[in-house]
Amino acid sequence: MKRFVFILVLFIVASLAVFMFGWVSLRLEPGRYAVMVSKTGGVDPVVLRSGSFRWTPAALLPTNLKIIPFTLPDMESVVELGGTLPSAEVYQEFMAGNPDFNWTVSVRIRTTVLPESLPALVEGFGINDDAGLSTWLATTTDLAVTGLRAAIIGLAGTREGATRLVSGEAETGFKVSLEKNYPDLSVSSLTLVSAKVPDLALYESARSLYLDYMESYRASVEPALARASSMAAEEQVRMEVLRRYGDLLERYPDLIDYLAIEAGMAPRQRAVVQTMMTPNITMPAIVIPTAPTATMPSYPAPTPPAAAGPSSGPVPVPEAAPDGADNPQSPETVRP
Questions:
Q1: Are the C-beta atoms of residues 151 and 177 closer than 8 Å to each other?
Q2: Residue 330, SS3?
Q3: How far apart are CA 67 and CA 312, in angstroms?
Q4: What pLDDT, on the 0 to 100 scale, is given for residue 42?
Q5: Do 321 and 297 meet the contact criterion of CB atoms below 8 Å apart?
Q6: pLDDT bracket for residue 261 (50, 70, 90)
Q7: What is the CATH number of domain 74-198?
Q8: Top-confidence residue, 53 or 278
Q9: Distance, CA of 76 to CA of 111 (rounded, Å)
Q10: 132: which of 7, 65, 93, 324 lies 20 to 30 Å off by Cα?
Q11: CA–CA separation, 162 and 195 (whole Å)
Q12: CA torsion angle for 241, 247, 248, 250 (degrees, to 10)?
């Protein structure tokens, strides 16, 4: 009987020891999570939680089981966005009062790691401590904030989206969208701190006015531009033709006379003389005789008549003219 009791007690103690070795949840500190990695089974897909019961036979083999504990970090980010609606500076010129088309939005977001994602992070990214988990959380949160910025900008540019931003209805949509795009990330809270959006109805009206003005301007300017472009093209073609004519006439100058003849015009005189002359033949000089120059007789100046009264002597007779010349006066003595 004593032997039976001894064996029973020994069996109970051994069973209790096996039970305690296999109860891995006892190894975790309160508020921590852990991932089991064994040589026989790899990464356990079920995350360990402190205060829960988890027993596994993998813990009975020495050096077979490794437990990686984690303290889930959290991170808070503030997203502040602002700007001007597209082409607002241009549209303002078509509206009286210089309306304000600026917008600003401020959102506070708090994120942490989803506990159920710890085994996947250990297996996929090789994370084995709290520092690696914090680095992953910071990187993923930055990506999520970038997506949140894009979502806010998309809402701020539409009338319905601006209404959702101002009323706060967009908070839930932002949170659901982030957790869907980043399934390993848990969004603890997302709060819209402030939102200021312009009057989008007024913005759309200004945009419509500007588009109508540009359409009218295009309809009036396009024909003039088309004519100017056509004239420029024709002028360019004409200049090119004239340049080719100039090159051709520079190489063959006699084409000028040929073109003149075709047009019914007389060719250049110089060109005619050059064409009719035989090369290497010297034309004899033509001497044109000149008429003899007639020699006119010279006459002595007439003697003025004497004063009134009888002449006191005879008037001298002029000398005879040279031979061969006519003498118009008689050799006789001329008396007054």
A1: yes
A2: coil
A3: 182
A4: 82
A5: yes
A6: confident
A7: 3.30.479.30
A8: 53
A9: 6
A10: 65
A11: 9
A12: 140
Q: DSSP string spanning 279-292?
A: TT-PPPPPPPPPPP
Alpha-carbon distance of 274 to 81, in angstroms, equals 89
Q: Which residue matches tokens 């939102």?
A: 195
d(C-alpha 126, C-alpha 35), whole Å: 12
Q: How far apart are CA 27 and CA 59, in angstroms?
A: 11
Confidence of residue 292 (pLDDT cuts 50, 70, 90): very low
Q: The dihedral of CA 16, 17, 18, 19: what is its sign? A: positive
Q: Which two tokens stand for residue 118?
A: 């710890």
Per-residue pLDDT, averaged over 168-175, amounts to 84
* Pair of tokens at residue 199: 């009057």
State the chain's maximal CA–CA distance in angstroms: 225
Identify the band that residue 335 occupies on the pLDDT scale cut at 50, 70 and 90: very low
Q: Which amino acid is at 330?
A: S
DSSP three-state, residue 270? helix
How confident is residue 17, by pLDDT bands cut at 50, 70 and 90? low
Average pLDDT, the chain: 74
Chain centroid to CA 99: how far?
30
* 170-181 and 159-167 helices, crossing angle to 10°: 100
